[in-house]
Specification:
The complex is a heterodimer of chains A (360) and B (331). With 360 residues, chain A is of the alpha/beta class. Chain A has helices spanning 2-16, 30-38, 58-61, 64-75, 96-101, 113-121, 135-151, 165-174, 188-193, 199-203, 216-232, 251-260, 290-294, 309-313, 337-340, 345-353, and strands spanning 23-29, 49-56, 79-83, 106-109, 127-133, 156-162, 182-185, 209-211, 237-239, 261-268, 272-281. In chain A, helix 1 (2-16) packs parallel to helix 11. By secondary structure, chain B is an alpha+beta fold. Helix content of chain B is 30%, strand content 24%. Chain B has helices at residues 13-27, 67-81, 101-118, 173-183, 197-204, 220-232, 247-256, 278-286, and strands spanning 48-55, 61-62, 65-66, 84-96, 121-130, 138-148, 164-167, 210-214, 235-239, 270-273, 295-301, 307-310, 316-318. In chain B, a hairpin with a 2-residue loop joins strand 2 (61-62) and strand 3. Classes of the chains: A alpha/beta (360), B alpha+beta (331).
Chain lengths: 360, 331
């Protein structure tokens, strides 16, 4: 593919212009992690350009106690509708997949709207939609809440833990140990929050930001854009996905989210509690809050011993440096969330870079 | 709507009528005619090649086929890639109480039609009915018996560095079709469920130049290549841009976040053959309708156990077999 070769050549040329300086670029979003791994992009980069995976995999940053709360509901006979990634995330005592094998009603869905059909098909069973994800997912989850209300559905609630990307970036740039020279900013999340959301990281923290899509050529184009800024000594927001992402984002989606959710402090696996980084249902939607409806509470939970997902998420550790990687923790038997989600750094490293000793 | 009841498995009048009305009209020629306890088959012309497989799928019917097609093709294909010419088939059915008769009829039509198209006869069978909830609609088991094709000598240990890797058509269509049907997507791809015995026979004409044949079902092409690399003590290099993929299947894979190299096919063959025979194998495959989309996709290397994908973009990555179930992603 000649365009790809040209872009790889451009990246190599920019890397040479760094005069031997090594740079670390963080792809914030899990879908970028996947695209980079799947298309072998690491293999196309010069040795002095390193990629780090950021906290942008929704399953990975969800705390273990959330799974425990979902398990408690499932074991009580509540039907669980969930995105597939959550199925195998280990809680303190089993996963939703193991609960399903024991007879719990757990259904993987591709869209929150599917939960309405499940609840309608079994009107006598209480159902809960596991509401995790970033802004991209929070918008349809908010739409789901409005639709539940509009149709008067009485047996469907949300176990809420959606998260916002900017507060996580705020926490990252505030960490003096974080050696990141630029951010490859998310595609779909940016479509909602807008490219302008990254301006503080460029302006106040001197980190170049490039918004790029998940298409492999766009990823290369985005990485080239980051290197161009670094070589030129600049730091600004460069929107290279302008065909979808507007500077102001999607105000209609944000209105729906604001109608249903409000910002709240939230716990992130690996990053701790971050102010206003999560979304919770507004008081007027309390009757759809699974924690209140079913009397469960999401506790912090216990992270698996030895698991370094937290450090991986913060970009401080490579998956291969975790003592569990490819030993007790594999995609078939994941210990930590970064191995469960197909977007997780550890799963991507295992799947696409090869397991232990085969790092390319 | 007429439905299966427990009485249909009870050995009495209802069961007799089920057999007379649904089984005999479709399979009553040949050894099954007088419903013997066991079929006596004529001698085979080569060593017997036997394979057995169980089939469960949801939904039972999907674009491009149903569980009946799978039950015939799955077993016939295993006999074929095992180096056999398929001749006979047995069919065991476990039916769930409440199964509509018209679904059963369509599945049995599929079994009969697919068997005829493969040149195999259903020579023995069994039907059981289980209470509602004890199985998901129906489960089928087929055993296939074939005779070894002279001149074919297959096995991963026969693969040598420099040999070529071929696939007989677009990959992942079956898995994508079933996932679409399960998720209620309106227009997904059709399953590729089909027999591969003619593709194998075409390979047999090339004799020892054909080293390895396998049908990439569960786990897809990635799993086959891994088993080949591990059992054969060789490596495999695949050129992603050469791998045939149907447009509709690619779209589904992008939406659902699937890696098509890990998705099941039900009518394809992965072959390894000597480099000098690759054009001949490709040509004879492409002259068959079921091999029209065949392509050379890579070669055998000397890095034992390692399967490397050269991506269309120009990068490289290690290709691993899938782990766990195929799961939809959040975003």
């Amino acid at each position: 593919m000649s365009v790809a070769r040209a872009l790889a050549g451009r990246i190599a040329e920019l890397a040479r212009a760094l005069d031997g300086r090594a740079v670390r670029l963080m792809e914030v979003c899990g879908s970028h992690t996947m695209a980079i791994a799947r298309h072998g992009i690491r293999d196309m980069l010069p040795g002095n350009v390193r990629l780090l995976s950021g906290p942008g995999c929704p399953v990975c940053v969800t705390e273990p106690g959330y799974v425990d709360a979902a398990l408690a509901l499932a074991r009580r006979g509540v039907g669980i509708a969930t995105f597939g990634d959550m199925l195998r995330v280990p809680g303190s005592d089993g996963s939703l997949a193991s609960a399903r094998a024991e007879g719990a009603v757990v259904r993987a869905v591709y869209s929150p709207a599917r939960a309405l059909e499940l609840a309608a098909a079994e009107p006598d069973r209480p159902w809960v939609m596991l509401a995790v994800g970033f802004e991209t997912t929070a918008a349809p989850l908010a739409a789901l809440a409005l639709e539940i209300r509009r149709r008067g559905v009485g047996n469907l609630a949300l176990l809420c833990a959606p998260k916002r990307v900017p507060p996580a970036l705020d926490a990252l740039v505030a960490d003096p140990e974080l050696a990141v020279d630029g951010f490859l900013c998310p595609a779909h999340v940016s479509a909602i929050i807008g490219a302008r959301a990254y301006e503080p990281y460029a302006r106040d923290h001197g980190r170049p930001c490039v918004v790029a899509s998940f298409e492999p050529l766009d990823v290369l184009h985005g990485l080239a854009g980051l290197l161009e800024q670094i070589v030129a000594g600049e730091a600004r927001v460069d929107n290279r996905y302008a065909r979808v992402v507007r500077p102001e984002g999607n105000p209609a989606a944000r209105r729906v989210m604001a109608e249903v959710f409000e910002a709240a402090d939230a716990r992130w696996r690996g990053l701790g509690t971050l102010p206003r980084s999560g979304l919770r249902l507004r008081e007027s939607f309390a009757d759809l809050d699974a924690e209140r409806v079913h009397g469960v509470a999401v506790q912090p939970g216990r992270e698996p011993p030895g698991c370094r997902c937290g450090e991986v998420l913060a970009g401080r550790t490579e998956p291969e440096d975790c003592p569990l990687f490819d030993r007790t923790c594999t995609p078939a038997h994941p210990v930590g969330p970064c191995m469960v989600s197909s977007e997780g750094s550890c799963a991507a490293a295992w799947k696409y870079r090869g397991s232990q000793g085969r790092k390319s | 709507m007429k439905r299966i009841t427990l009485a249909h498995g009870g050995g009495g009048l209802e069961m007799r009528r089920l057999v007379e009305e649904e089984i005999l009209p479709r399979f009553g020629e040949g050894p099954l005619r007088d419903l013997p306890d066991a079929a006596i088959l004529p001698p085979l012309s080569g060593a017997p090649v036997v394979s057995t497989d169980g089939f469960v799928v949801q939904p039972l019917e999907f674009p491009g086929g149903n569980i009946g097609h799978l039950a015939v093709h799955g077993t016939v294909n295993d006999v074929a890639v095992g180096g056999g010419r398929p001749r006979w088939l047995t069919l065991g059915m476990v039916l769930e109480e409440g199964l509509p008769f018209d679904v059963l009829g369509r599945v049995l039509d599929a079994v009969a039609g697919a068997a005829r198209a493969c040149g195999v006869k259903v020579v023995a069978g069994d039907t059981k009915v289980v209470p509602r909830g004890a199985c998901d609609g129906m489960a089928l088991t087929t055993t296939g018996i074939g005779e070894a094709i002279p001149g074919l000598a297959l096995g991963p240990r026969r693969c040598r560095p420099g040999d070529r890797v071929l696939v007989s058509g677009s990959i992942g269509d079956h898995g994508a079709a079933v996932l679409c049907a399960r998720e209620g997507f309106e227009r997904g791809p059709d399953s590729d469920t089909a027999p591969v015995h003619r593709l194998v026979a075409a390979g047999a004409a090339l004799g020892a130049a054909v080293r390895f044949l396998r049908d990439p079902t569960r786990g897809g092409v990635a799993t086959v290549l891994h088993e080949l690399a591990e059992a054969g003590g060789v490596g495999v290099r695949i050129d992603e841009s050469a791998v045939p993929v149907a447009a509709a299947t690619r779209a589904v894979a992008d939406i659902l976040g699937l890696d098509l190299l890990q998705v099941a096919c039900e009518g394809r063959v992965v072959a390894v053959c000597a480099a000098e025979a690759a054009d001949a194998l490709l040509g004879s495959w492409r002259s068959l309708p079921e091999g029209r989309g065949a392509a050379v996709v890579g070669e055998i290397t000397d890095t034992a156990g390692r399967v490397v994908l050269e991506t269309a973009l120009g990068g490289r990555r290690v290709l691993l077999p899938p782990a766990g179930e195929l799961l939809p992603r959040i975003c």
